[in-house]
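Quick one: structure for this chain?
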Amino acid sequence: MKNEKFRVNSIEYSPRKVMVIAELGTSHGADRIKAAELIEAASEAGADCVKFQIVYAREILHPNTGEVLLPGGKIRLYDRFRELESDPSFFADMKERVEKKGLLFLCTPFGLQSAGELMRLKPKFVKIASPELNFSALLREVASYRLPTLLSTGVSRLGDIEEAISTMEESPGGAPPLCLLHCVTSYPAPETDYNLRVLKSLSSVFGIPTGVSDHSLDPCLVPVLAAAMGASVVEKHFCLSRDDPGLDDPIALPPAAFGQMTRALRQAEKAGAEETLDAMYREHGRELIEGILGDGVKRLAQSEKANYERTNRSIHALRDIAEGEIIEKNMIASLRTEKILRPGLHPKWEEKIIGRKAKKFIPAGEGLRFEDI
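Got it. Here's what it folds into:
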């Protein structure tokens, strides 16, 4: 699976050319005018690629998963995701707008429906978000598309990454071209949690390119140091203003800060790793820079440990399942656990659970465990 460069069709990205992704996520609020403004601003700020998310709440979590506190008060997290849903025609329009600007269009699906809708748009490549790194069915589906794929590796251990890659390799034809995006699943993530020497470790272990998906607040520290560590890709959330109501806007970069980041990245490319590191040591001090670079050992970051097995996917009951009831496919789904529910089994067990008998009552939303069946 040795793959020294990450290709998107004829476009080749290597440590000598960092692909800069402006992650719009859902900051557009399904408003086409605002989305167009975001695309224009991202282009002017130096992005190579603009990224969206196809959201269907039912593909991501159960309605009983709990509440989230927003400026307007508490709201069910499920309902907040419902608010982020967009018509498929919205993404077709966005792809056309992005490509007319000469940029790459990228999108994240969160389930089989959204993946199918994305494929009908004929994208050049795909991204799997960190919580879906263990979503076996989605990995197999995306692998079947044979498109270059970014795998985000937040809230994961080394074994989780290995299992995800192995799952994709089992697809007919093997895994498509892959790039691992090192990430810390915390909003915001402390710069010193990033352990950026892990980029070289992961590339060495798996023989594929690496990059970073950065949730820290500083526009340059993590991206520039990631470039010095050989990143092929740098992704940052993008917004018009951090005061906007988008779910990720408080940790996103506004246009001026994003532009600052892209200029710093291009300068780092020209200067090379050694000169870039020397400059960062001088400007920020060796202690801080070494704290961000870390020891290169892949482990859960301190700020994301509490999210492990809650942000990731596991098998949950879609409805109440009575004691003695035979479990059918439409009764369960691999979802994020999130707030108040208990985590269930890894999604790889989903097919083996179907047809088994429930040993006890399983409430709607709760994760299924071996002792339940």
